[in-house]
Amino acid sequence: IPPAARGARVDIPIPASGLGEVAYQDGAETVHLGARSATGQPIDAGRRVRIERVTHRVAIVRPLDGKGSAG
Description:
The chain is an all-beta fold. The protein has strands at 7-12, 20-26, 29-37, 48-55, 58-63. The protein has a 5-stranded mixed β-barrel.
């Protein structure tokens, strides 16, 4: 399965207009990618997200529940 449309976990929080990091499983390997929010909203570490696309090893992600940060 290509990274796009995969579920992933936010390892480093994604700020509203900055770069964080996500990780996903590819078989036995854990793959880490830089990540930006598709919505422009911050996303907290530990949140589950869907990777919409990957460009130059940076994933554009959206929270699975449609929400960003807890606060």
